[in-house]
Amino acid sequence: MRDNRRGKNGEYLLTLAIETSCDETSAAVLKNGREVLSNVISTQIEQHKKFGGVVPEVASRKHVENVDMVIQDALDEAGVSLRQIDHIGVTYGPGLVGALLVGVSTAKAMAYALNIPLIGVNHIEGHIYANFIEDPTLEPPFLCLIVSGGHSHLAYIKDYGRYEIMGKTRDDAVGEAFDKVARAMELGYPGGPIIDQLAKQGDPNAIHFPRVYLENDSYDFSFSGLKSAVLNYLNSQRQKGEGIKVEDVAASFQQAVMEVLIHKTLEGAKQKNVDKIVLAGGVAANSALREGLKKKAAALGFDVKYPSLQLCTDNAAMIGCAAYYNYLKGNTADLYLNAVPNLKLGQLYEKHR
């Protein structure tokens, strides 16, 4: 989809994007949707480490403290002023309601003051669009595996803004399972990167953990049973007074997760007869997933793409890209836009008259 409109800057449109769905305060400026002029991220990991996870109230307060400074930093880094911005995109769901409200309120106030369009962006959609930034030549259709701390989706991307959800988690999201297993082993937070590194030093066949594939024709995921199996193993070893080799636990757990993710993704790609498979979300940074999927996909003739590490985690650049393409489709919001913590992929906001 190419733009035939012109913004305030003549031959291109500038998007200001804001992301505050969880514990990163981020703002970005993009040129014509895919060229990132700035992408500033203020993380709260250190504040939440002592709790072993994100505390919603703490996250909201930090967003309030940081959002204005982060936006100004993004404008300064891009070398543009607010008066040059053509429209504002903001994450309005899914996510933590208090955190979302900080970004939504800020974006609405700025859109009103500047008299420019406001675009509400689905956070999951943003993760998909990170790939359009990473690869300027990427175009739909393709299959996308979206895996993060709060979401696990297998989606067929028919076109910009048109999705078919083939499968999703029935219980724990992938990243959530990683964090819970890491917490049980007292490894720290966030658990995903820690387990990924430990697994490189362990034996993935040392411990057999269950692989949950569900029904034969299902593309859904379930990781709660696997997580419980790991916790039961750890408790059993401790009760028997036997040692626990955390590297082997990490490797065996990760292998069980990746086998299911890769199998279902490849089966989905076969069903949809696509030639491109795309990864998105924080868990897309996992080295075993990247390498394992790429290797098995290549043998079947599928091309696998994934974003750089910074674009895998929550960031405003991906929100800006999604906002741009929503703007081209006329999907603008009014000033009644509100946070929707359980927003579904493909669900559009209601407009008030």
UniProtKB/TrEMBL annotation:
What note does UniProt attach to the cofactor annotation?
A: Binds 1 Fe(2+) ion per subunit.
Could you state one GO biological process linked to this protein?
Answer: tRNA threonylcarbamoyladenosine modification
Q: What is its EC number?
A: 2.3.1.234
InterPro entries, alphabetized: ATPase_NBD (IPR043129), Gcp-like_dom (IPR000905), KAE1/TsaD (IPR017861), Peptidase_M22_CS (IPR017860), TsaD (IPR022450)
Places the protein is found: Cytoplasm
EC supergroup of this enzyme: transferase
The record lists Fe cation as bound by H123, H127, D314
**Cofactor(s) of this protein:** Fe(2+)
Q: Please name one Pfam family that this protein belongs to.
A: TsaD
User: Where along the sequence do coiled-coil regions lie?
Assistant: none
Outline the extent of the Gcp-like domain: 35-320
Give the main localization category: cytoplasm
The residues that hold substrate are: I146, V147, S148, G149, G150, D179, G192, D196, N286
Q: Which PROSITE patterns match?
A: GLYCOPROTEASE (PS01016)
| One MF term in the entry's GO annotations | tRNA N(6)-L-threonylcarbamoyladenine synthase activity
Q: What's one GO-annotated cellular component?
A: cytoplasm
- What catalytic activity is recorded? L-threonylcarbamoyladenylate + adenosine(37) in tRNA = N(6)-L-threonylcarbamoyladenosine(37) in tRNA + AMP + H(+)
Keyword tags? Acyltransferase, Cytoplasm, Iron, Metal-binding, Transferase, tRNA processing
Q: Give the family, as the similarity comment puts it.
A: Belongs to the KAE1 / TsaD family.
Give the function comment from the record: Required for the formation of a threonylcarbamoyl group on adenosine at position 37 (t(6)A37) in tRNAs that read codons beginning with adenine. Is involved in the transfer of the threonylcarbamoyl moiety of threonylcarbamoyl-AMP (TC-AMP) to the N6 group of A37, together with TsaE and TsaB. TsaD likely plays a direct catalytic role in this reaction.
Protein name as annotated: tRNA N6-adenosine threonylcarbamoyltransferase
Task: Please report the organism this UniProt entry assigns to the protein.
Answer: Anaerosolibacter carboniphilus
Q: What does the organism's lineage look like at the top?
A: Bacteria, Bacillati, Bacillota, Clostridia, Peptostreptococcales
